[in-house]
Design a protein that fits this description.
single chain; 134 residues; alpha+beta; Pnp Oxidase, Chain A; six-stranded antiparallel β-barrel; 3 helices; 19% helix; globular
């Protein structure tokens, strides 16, 4: 496994549309698949039919979310994985909502409860490459 730089991680993340948001629900970890887009160094996700996620982000001044995406070939096991941890906010600006809503339509084809932006604080990733045999 080869560690990736933050810039490489965000570039790879921008190349895929689906990932998993990680958050706390009832003091336990929760994970949900969501669509995303990377713009201006932020990850924008749609909280499709996720009122608990929207409510949690709205209720906290500095809500912390994790976001993970990967692209790994099931046969060769080659690929990459990226994890972002950062502060989240609901996007309330109508212009930003109009701009991003079509880009992060829910993968379940439900209406998004809200659009959420994650400002990356910690960005890590690994490329899974072929290893040499001993």
């Amino acid at each position: 496994m080869i560690a990736l730089s933050s810039d490489e991680c965000l570039t790879l993340l921008a190349g895929v549309r689906l990932g998993r948001v990680v958050y706390t629900r009832d003091v336990l970890p929760a994970v949900r698949p969501v669509n995303h887009v990377v713009r201006d160094g932020e990850i924008i996700i749609g909280a499709g039919a996720s009122p608990w996620l929207t409510k949690m982000v709205r209720a906290r001044d500095k809500a912390v979310l994790g976001y993970q995406a990967d692209q790994i070939d099931q046969n060769s096991h080659h690929g990459w994985t990226v994890l972002v941890v950062g502060y989240a906010q609901i996007i309330d600006d109508p212009d930003r909502i109009a701009k991003y809503a079509p880009l992060v339509q829910s993968w379940t084809r439900t209406v998004n409860d809200a659009l959420i932006t994650i400002e990356p604080d910690l960005v890590t990733g690994m490329r899974i490459a072929e290893s040499s045999s001993i």
